[in-house]
Structures are given as structure tokens and as C-alpha cells.
Amino acid sequence: MMIDDELALLRAHRNNIGRYQRLLKTELTEFERRFIERRLSEERSAIERLSASTFPLVFKTPNRTIENATALLTASGQG
Questions:
Q1: How far apart are the first and last CA of the chain?
Q2: Who's near 8: CB < 8 A, 6+ residues apart?
Q3: Residue 56 and residue 71: Cα distance in Å, rounded?
Q4: What DSSP assignment string belongs to 13-47?
Q5: How far apart are CA 60 and CA 16, in angstroms?
Q6: Angle between helices 30-54 and 3-24 (to 10 degrees)
Q7: For 49-66, what is the mean pLDDT?
């Protein structure tokens, strides 16, 4: 697979994750919530697999660290 294709797939997974996170903030039935949480987990796993194969030397950073850094950048007007 070409790097452009892989990057497009990573963007698609990232967009799906954002969509699922927004949906989880809405009022859902328990069945809907479980479905979305499962899909969110699948999307995150897909990103992990694709990232590992596309960028094998990238160091893994805990999700919480990434979320905190993003929040700080957004709050400071940099992101």
C-alpha cells in the first residue's frame, strides 16, 4: 500500500473516532452505547495496527498523554 493510501486510512479512522466520541456525549440507549463503544475500540485498534505497520519506529504514547497535550494546546489557542 502506498504511503498516501495509508495516511488516508489513518485520517478516516481518526475521523471515525471523533464521530464516535461525539456520539457518546449524546443520549443513547444502552444497546447503542455498547455498539458505539465497541466500534470506537475497533477504530483505535485499526489505527494502532496501521500505525505500527506504516511507521514501525514510532514510539507509542499513552492515549491520556495525547489527550492532555491536545487539551493544553487547544486551551492556549495554539491548536
A1: 31
A2: none
A3: 27
A4: HHHHHHHHHHHHTS---HHHHHHHHHHHHHHHHHH
A5: 20
A6: 160
A7: 67
Report d(CA 78, CA 55) in Å as an integer. 26
Please name which of 10, 20, 5 lies closest in space to residue 48, comparing C-alpha atoms: 10
Tell me the whole-structure pTM to 2 decimals: 0.66
Please give the Cα distance from 75 to 8 (Å, whole number).
Answer: 28
Would you say residue 38 has pLDDT above 90?
Answer: yes
Distance separating alpha carbons of residues 16 and 2, to the nearest angstrom: 21
Residue type, 28: L
Q: How far is CA 39 from CA 18, 26, 46, 59, 76, in A?
A: 12, 16, 10, 25, 31
